[in-house]
Design goal:
heterodimer, A: mainly beta, six-stranded mixed sheet, five-stranded antiparallel sheet, 11 strands, 59% strand, B: mainly beta, seven-stranded mixed sheet
């Protein structure tokens, strides 16, 4: 089955700096890669996604890149704000089943 | 995206008992899934709830322990059977419309087994 690895597990940045979270996947058949943000005690919320026919996608301060050859994808958050503090999960999807990374706890220091 | 109502939101149960979690969606959805999230951990897929047929379980999860129903395209239940403290976790349902966008999660059920 699919194996998704995510790094780092924890990340602290100063407000205004950028944060990068990286994921790798094992199944070349995976073709959809969403990122979820989970605040403490709340459900995961989809923040951005990318399909395998696209190399990069951007939505305001958030961007995701995908390298299919290397089977890795990354989340980039620019101009971080304290409200960006949360746990972020990447996922790889094939046949509509999602397999999640282990999560990154992001802390933005004011 | 679909609006999901999941209940109960939390429960404390005695070991050896069973708990059924319900997931109601405000529109017909193609895909429904059940996940488990242990404290401080990632989300692990338990099974895909198939309408009109048996659920498809992931490795490590079995129907006897986690029976699932999906009687129609808007509703599903997950039962955690013969519970032990190791089953203490958050259980979440997730739905997708088949267009690969808008996969959303229910608010979760926080289960504590004592």
């Amino acid at each position: 089955g699919e194996n998704v690895e995510q790094h780092p597990s924890t990340l602290s940045v100063q407000e205004g700096d950028s944060a990068v979270i990286k994921c790798t996947y094992s199944d070349s058949a995976s073709n959809y890669f969403p990122w979820y943000k989970q605040e403490l005690g709340k459900r995961p919320q989809l923040i951005i996604d990318i399909r395998s026919n696209v190399g990069e996608k951007k939505d305001q301060r958030i961007a995701v890149t995908l390298n299919k050859t290397a089977k890795h994808f990354s989340l980039h958050i620019t101009e971080t704000q304290p409200e960006d503090s949360a746990v972020y999960f990447c996922a790889a999807s094939r046949f509509d089943q999602f397999y999640f990374g282990t999560g990154t706890s992001l802390t933005v220091i004011p | 995206s679909a609006v999901i109502s999941q209940k109960p939101s939390r429960d404390i149960c005695q070991r050896g008992t069973s708990l059924t979690i319900q997931c109601q969606v405000d529109s017909q959805v193609t895909m429904m899934f059940w996940y488990r999230q242990q404290p401080g951990q990632s989300l692990t897929l338990i099974a895909t709830a198939n309408q009109g047929s048996e659920a498809t379980y992931e490795s490590g999860f079995v129907i006897d322990k986690f029976p699932i129903s999906r009687p129609n395209l808007t509703f599903s239940t997950l039962t955690v059977s013969n519970m032990s403290p190791e089953d203490s976790s958050i259980y979440l349902c997730s739905v997708g419309t088949g267009d690969r966008y808008g996969y959303t999660f229910g608010s979760g059920t926080r289960l504590t087994v004592v």
